[in-house]
Amino acid sequence: MAKISAALVKQLREMTDSPMMECKKALVEADGDIDKAVDVLRKMGLAKAVKRAGRETNEGTIGVWVSDDTKLGAMVELTCETDFVGTNAKFKAFALDLAKVVAENDPADLDAFKACPMGQGTVESELTEIIHVIGENMKINRFVRVTADNGALGTYTHHDGKHADIVTFSFSKPETASADAFKTYAHDVAMQVIASNPVSAVREDVPADVVEHEKGIYKAQAAESGKPEAIQEKIAMGKLEKFYKENVLTEQVFVKDSDKTIDSLTKEVSKEVGDDIKVVTFARFNFGE
Predict the structure, then answer these.
(1) Do 94 and 32 reside in the same domain of the chain?
(2) How far, in Å, CA of 242 to CA of 94, rounded?
(3) 165 pairs with which residues across the strands?
C-alpha cells in the first residue's frame, strides 16, 4: 500500500474542498492515486447528499446572470438549510453559475436543467458535489431565462440576495445599451420593481382576472354609497385608475423622485440618449414565493 503523505492529503483537500479526514480516507482507498481519490470523494458526496435530501431548505439566495451585451439573462433560486450557508460566498457563486447555465442552455424544465452540462459533469452532479463540500441539503427551486433581442436588460439584486429581478427594455440604437444614462436608468427601474412590487410593466399586461376582481370590489364599494348607478360606475373606474397607478410599473411614482413617474423618467432618459426607450416586461423573484 502506498504511503499517504500529509502533502498529498493537503493537495487533495485544496483540489476538492473536502474535509481533511475524508481526503485521507479517499487516498487510502485509492492507494495514493489522487485522480481515483477524487472519484472516491465524489461517490462519498453522492451518498451523503442522499442522506441530506430530506432536510428542509428554507434559506438560500437568488443568482442573477446577464451577458456582457445585456441581451441574455437568467435567474435561479437556490435553497439551503441555514442562513449561514445562504450568505456563503461559495454558495452564492454557485447560484450565479447556475443562472449562467440556464441562460446558455435554455432548459425546458427542472429535469432538463439538471441534465445540462456544467463543470466536469452535469448540473445535478455539481449540485451533489457542493452539497458534499458545504454539508447542507440544497435544492434548485425555480429558474427563468430572459432575452432582449431589440434592446437590453437591466437588473437589480437586493443586498440580502433574496429579492432580484430582470427588466427588459426596447430601443432602436445599439449604442443606447452602453450609454451611462441608460445604465443608471435601467438599474433604477429594476430597483423600482423590487421596492414597489408592481403587478405588470404596462397596463395592458395586468391579468384580466386581476382587473375583473378589482372592478368587482370597487363596484360593490360604490353600491354601498347609495348614489345613482352612473355615478357608481364613475367611482369604481376612478378607483381602478388609482389601482393602475399604484400597481403598473410605468405608471408608478419613481421611488427616488416623487415628482416623476417611471413613464416620465423613461421619456426624460430617451431624450437624453436620443432614442425611444420602452419598458417591455420584467421577471421578479422574491425568495420563497
Answers:
(1) no
(2) 42
(3) 156, 284
Reading the block at residue 143, the C-alpha cell is 429558474
Answer for the pair 188, 264: CB distance below 8 angstroms, yes or no. Answer: no
DSSP state letter for 177 = G
Segment (H or E) for 151: strand 151-157
Residue range(s) defining the domain that contains residue 44: 6-52
What are the tens digits of pLDDT across the range 98-107?
999 999 999 9
Residue 267 placed within a domain: no
Maximal CA-CA distance, the chain: 96
Q: Which residues pair with 64 in a beta bridge?
A: 75
Domain count, the chain: 3
Rounded-to-integer distance, Cα 199 and Cα 196, Å = 9
Confidence band for 35, pLDDT divided at 50, 70 and 90 = confident
Contact 3, 28 (CB under 8 A): no
Task: Give the integer Cα–Cα distance in Å for 225 and 174.
Answer: 54
| Lowest-pLDDT range of 4-18, 54-68, 98-112, 148-162 | 4-18
User: Which contiguous run of DSSP H or E holds residue 57?
Assistant: none
Q: Is residue 275 part of a domain?
A: no
Flag whether pLDDT at 50 surpasses 70.
no
**pTM of the predicted model as reported, rounded to 2 decimal places:** 0.79
The three cell numbers locating residue 88 = 456563503
Residue 40 CA to residue 53 CA, distance in Å, equals 20
3-state helix, strand, coil in the chain (%, to 5): 55, 20, 25
Distance CA 22, CA 37 (A): 10
